[in-house]
Amino acid sequence: MSVTGSCFRSVIDMISNFTEIGIPEDIAKAMDDMGWSEPTPIQVSAVPMGLEGFDMFAQAQTGTGKTGAYGSIVLGTIPAQKKVPSAIILVPTRELANQVAGELTKLSKYTNHVTLPIYGGASIEGQIKKLQKGCDIVAGTPGRVRDMVTRGILNLTEITTMVLDEADRMLDMGFIEDIEYILKAMPSKRHTLLFSATMQENVKQLAYDYMTMPKEISVSQDEVVLDNIKQYYISVGRRNKSWALCRILDIDKPKALIFCQTKKMVDVLEERLKALDYKIEAIHGDMPQFKRERVLKDFKGEGVDVLIATDVAARGLDIDDITYVINYDMPDDIDTYIHRIGRTGRAGKEGIAVSFVTSEEKHLVKEFEMRTGMDIQKRDVPEAEEGTKDTIRKVVDYDQISDVFGMCKFEVNLGKNDGFKKVSLADFIIRNARLRDVAIGKIQIGDDSSIVEVHKDFGNRMTMDLTKAKFKSKKIMVRVIQD
Ligand code: AMP
Question: What is the Å distance from ligand 1's center to 257 Cα?
Fold first, then answer.
């Protein structure tokens, strides 16, 4: 079977969405095989902290991807094939035990962890045999797990990670004694993760009795309201995006969240803007959790005006006073676009979303307008104030000004009065600007000057090399025609 370049790339993109939040590659690959394309909000909030070893108290309902969240933490932190279990997941029902074991088995396709479901109401002998063969993770109901421990079949002395899933239901079903018995059978120094749909009092009690300074996470439905957001786009080529961005930062002085498509681009832009003394910070999934938390805290405060981020790192970000969202790189799907711009215009405030759009991306503006049913107006880069200099200079972006065939127009100060005809002028330019003859297109000969089409790849040679040449004693001048 052959894999095309673009197909291969999209698989890598999907995997990198997961590795960006710290999920090891062999687990990310299994997620891709399961058809998952990006982490859910609970996965984005829980996985990085969990992988760093923090205890966690998470409010999340079924359907949020919580099994994938704690599953990645467990698989990412315990050894495989050790035979004596290193992790145990307690769940309220037999169905859930099977479901969790099934999902973990799929997630460990490339890590080779073995997960066994252990639950009551089914023959105990079969489960005993399987336990005796050894496993890495037990997903079980409290009553049957306790039974197995009492019989000396299940050894919990090497448990390093414990998950209480649907803790509120387990307590409502009267499992507290079994849970406490099981907790005492395992080392007290362990990593504990608790998931619950509600935060009722007895759940909190359990959390604080059995966890060490747990991090609290709550995942609510993140509804985006676009009504308060004015949407704009600026037509700008790749080479001039940082110039346009600095103009906006200098003149509009926004509290801005800036989205780039890749971690690499976030790093490059961070370095460029910091070198120019802008008060900015950056966030993406390769940074350790403590640094991300510090960056977010700084951005929420006064000291930092601009945060540069990737999509995954900024997911769910809820900061009331972001005035601008800037799509430094335009996203190519509507969900990402809506999610990004929804970081502004919150809590009843007005927000502005500005997207930088290259000539190849123009179609996305139309598409997003249709999908949101709202206008995305064209606007220009703000004018510089009289007498002020740009921090980053605008350059000619031949990609942006070329036509669909990649041709750009130049005005050259040679024409009929210098004795040129189309062919002789083409020859002169080819020789002096070191062009390939296929790089030259239409020529309109004028009296004193002519318009010449040249392929964008040779734009620099037209303005640099050709202007070094002379015709007789006349200095050659070249002007790029931008409309
Ligand atoms: P849970 O909240 O764990 O019950 O998960 C709900 C469903 O979402 C399950 O069918 C999971 O397999 C699926 N799921 C979990 N994480 C993802 C993801 N990142 N992308 C797509 N589906 C997912």
Answer: 29
- Kindly state the average pLDDT of the residues 9-28: 79
Query: Is 386 exposed, middle or buried, given 0-12, 13-18 or 19+ CB atoms closer than 10 A?
Result: exposed
Q: Is 41 in the pocket of ligand 1 (CB under 6 A)?
A: no
Tens-digit pLDDT profile for residues 94-132: 888 998 999 999 999 999 999 999 999 888 999 999 999
Angle 93-84-213 (CA atoms, 0-180°, nearest 5)? 65
User: Is the CB of residue 43 less than 8 Å from the CB of residue 68?
Assistant: yes
Q: Cβ(480)–Cβ(400) under 8 Å? A: no
Q: How far is the CA of 256 from the centre of ligand 1 (A)?
A: 32
Give yes or no for a contact between 372 and 226, defined as CB atoms under 8 angstroms apart: yes
Does ligand 1 come within 6 angstroms of the Cβ of 66? yes
pTM given for the model: 0.53
What type of residue is 389? K
- Going by C-alpha positions, the residue among 402, 439, 440 that lies closest to residue 423 is 440
Q: How far is the CA of 106 from the centre of ligand 1 (A)?
A: 12
Quick count: other Cβ atoms within 10 Å of Cβ 389?
A: 6
